[in-house]
Specification:
The protein is elongated. The strands form six sheets. The protein has a four-stranded mixed beta sheet with strand order 1-2-3-4. Strands 13-14-15 form a three-stranded antiparallel beta sheet, with no helix packed on it. It has a two-stranded antiparallel ribbon with strand order 5-6. It is mostly beta strands and 249 residues long. The termini are far apart. It has one helix and 15 strands. Among the domains are: 39 residues, YefM-like fold (3-Layer(aba) Sandwich), CATH 3.40.1620.70; 52 residues, no CATH class. β11 and β12 form a beta hairpin.
């Protein structure tokens, strides 16, 4: 904006507040002065300097147009809270915090155990499959992922879970594995195929069934040297012969 051609600049007396106070005799009634150390304008009224702006150091906050601390004076510890119905800030107490208690039990009606009172933070262990999501509306959403307890197999290394860890079943020789994801509950079926054990038939004297050998008893035994009955020797079958009643010759 261009400056007007005819103007009268206004220049007020400036100085430190203490210096202005000692110079009142030389100031005119109604004259404006500026205290540089206080960044404040004063006017000479009745031989004294009167601040033109509100001094919040000596003025109550109740002087603000949208604050009411007179109708219900504040008590110790209260804060100002916005009252939308009245359109102003009023003294109010903080909401009473909820006392949170954390406990564990085996079932919904089990006896509480490991009770912890006055808790303000609950932490979930993600290593055990928990996930916590901030929904952004003051709500925390907790999920328990898939995990498993240690699996014990005789003579084998124990399987200990690490977080949400999968388990794989591997079919061995002559074994098939089938899953049913639609059954209730979901199921896994193991099927074994193939023959059973082998039975060894031999002569009692260790000879072979070949022509020209002498008659001899022979034994039945489990293939590989095992026994039919635990703790007993191979069971001999005496004077066994050919299917037609003759002797092995």
């Amino acid at each position: 904006m261009a400056l007007p051609a005819n103007r009268v600049p206004v220049r007020v007396a400036r100085g430190l507040k203490a210096a202005l106070d000692t110079s009142l005799a030389g100031l005119l009634e109604g004259e404006l002065v500026y205290a540089k150390d206080e960044d404040k304008l004063y006017i000479v009224e009745g031989g004294v300097l009167v601040a033109l702006s509100a001094d919040l150091g000596t003025t109550s906050i109740d002087a603000l147009s949208d604050v009411d601390t007179s109708t219900a004076p504040p008590s110790d510890g209260q804060k100002l809270a916005w009252n939308a119905a009245d359109g102003e800030w009023q003294p109010a107490s903080d909401p009473t915090p909820y006392a949170l208690t954390v406990q564990q039990r085996d079932t919904a009606v089990g006896t509480p155990a490991n009770v912890i009172s006055n808790v303000d933070t609950v932490t979930f262990n993600t290593a055990n499959g928990f996930t916590v999501t901030d929904l952004g509306n003051g709500e925390a959403f907790v999920e328990l992922g898939s995990t498993f307890a240690p699996w014990l197999v005789d003579g084998q290394t124990t399987l200990d879970p690490t977080g949400e860890e999968p388990i794989r079943f591997i079919a061995g020789t002559n074994v098939t594995i089938e899953t049913d994801a639609l059954s209730t509950p979901k199921s896994i079926t193991f099927n074994a195929t193939g023959g059973g054990g082998t039975v060894e038939v031999g002569r009692g004297d260790g000879g072979d069934f070949v022509a020209g050998t002498i008659d001899s008893a022979f034994i039945f035994g489990v293939y590989g040297g095992g026994d039919f009955t635990a703790g007993t020797a191979d069971i001999p079958v005496e004077q066994s012969g050919a299917a037609d009643g003759g002797l092995f010759a």
